[in-house]
Amino acid sequence: MTPTHASDPGATPGLSAADAPPVPDARHTPHPRHPRHIPHSERAPHSQRPQPRPAEGRRPAFFRSSTWRAFGYHWLSLLLAPFALAYAVSTVSLGASFLVTFVGLIIPAAMVAAARYWGTINRSLAAALLGRPIDAPPPFTTRPGFFGFLRSGLSDTAGWRALAHMGVSFVTSVTAACLSISFLVTGLGCMTHWFWSRWLPPQQAADGTWHRGSQILPGVFADSFWWQAAYFAVGVLFTFLLWPAINNGMARLQASLAAGLLGPTAGQYRVRDLEASRSSSVKTADARLARIERDLHDGTQAQLVAIAMKLGDARDRAAGTEVSPELQHLLDSAHGTAKEALEDLRGLARGIRPAVLNDGLDTALESLAATAPLPVDLSYRLPVRPAPAVEAIAYYCAAELVTNAVKHSRGTRVSILVVEEGADMVLSVKDDGTGGAAGGGRVGTGTGAGTGLAGLAERVRTVDGTMRISSPAGGPTVVTVFLPLS
Q1: CATH second-level architecture of 359-484?
Q2: Model confidence pLDDT, tens digit, residues 264-300
Q3: DSSP letter, residue 50
Q4: In the chain, where are the structural domains located?
Q5: Which long-range contacts (CB under 8 A, 24 or more apart) does 319-327 make?
Q6: What are the residues whose beta carbons fall under 8 Å from the beta carbon of 69, sequence distance 6 or more?
Q7: Which of 41, 367, 437, 476 is the most buried (most CB within 10 A)?
Q8: Are 27 and 358 in contact (CB under 8 A)?
Q9: Where, if anywhere, are coiled coils annotated (predicted)?
Q10: Contact of 424 with 466, CB cutoff 8 Å
């Protein structure tokens, strides 16, 4: 559709009351406050195990729920470890086998990327059973095309670290489960030896006597009271002291191994903090630009309107009296200069950050389409409102691309499409001109960066967006901008 032109609240002032400063309206209503992103450096470190609650901390370790959750973790790890080891060995062996075919490397590349799911499962188990929340590594991102996916999969650090965990955890899981189960069963067996030893088959000693207790040494059987008491004491030691220490110690080892191999690396933490800092800087800059635009609109612009009105009134009064032509010319010139300064100020304010963006990107694009020299078809199908900084970047991209189409494309029509694609907003601007705007593909840094399409690409990259250009000779020219919604 081609939006109709809305009335311009910022028309050039004349000599009537219509030139009075506009009353601030809903355009300047600030956006609702968005949840503040907390950088990783400000968050409580996930690698630290939360302290047990006081009521549980006073209990003996054998009776703590955390001890038994760790015991359950050892059992689950023992069941999953063989499958994980088989997967890791298969991935490496398939990679070595298909290395000569090159194209066949797509299978190990996919298996490396899929190994991330093992990391997800183990992080969930560590959080639920060991009380050790672990941050997830950055999500897997794939490059376009077959070779792009091949390169992305084979170079996925998180996938390879998950495979390493599969191999190492097989040893630690089997060791932890065997030690924990052995100490617990030994302790419980010793504590109850007095009960179940009566069903042992009788054994004859060297002196001809018969015994039913366990044989400790040749001719020595644990069937007397003191031997049964000694067995019971050993059972108490194993069950209530040694087993919780071994069980929980191996659980801490497993948790540390999972945190070391399944969580982000120090470099990824650093990148995450830098991204959070950059996001905060972008939001702060956008808010500062909005404040400058609002101050110019409500302050300086209103003062210039008042000056223009006073000069116009003075000129009209002087016209009915006997004044020198020089004074009359001076009043006319001052009135014209004030009006020109007002127009320049309005253009500057629109360039800083259009006030219409406060009503949403859809309204801003409708205003852009209505005032464009060429007919503009606008299709806006975005179910949610993007972040303010993203809205501003999308608007500037659309405005610059429409201006380029008007100046250089020699086309007759422009279309703007805004849709949602996953977690991104896709802005597509198409004209029916002669094409040849730039080489196809992504636009990045290079000569001329900071101006034109290269400048738009730099602006888009400030929020981790990308821009693609398709402009074959003869047209049409299609510029597609991918921006995160949040």
Answers
A1: 2-Layer Sandwich (3.30)
A2: 887 766 777 666 666 666 667 667 766 776 666 667 7
A3: P
A4: 54-198+212-264, 279-353, 359-484
A5: none
A6: 128, 129, 130, 131
A7: 437
A8: yes
A9: none
A10: no
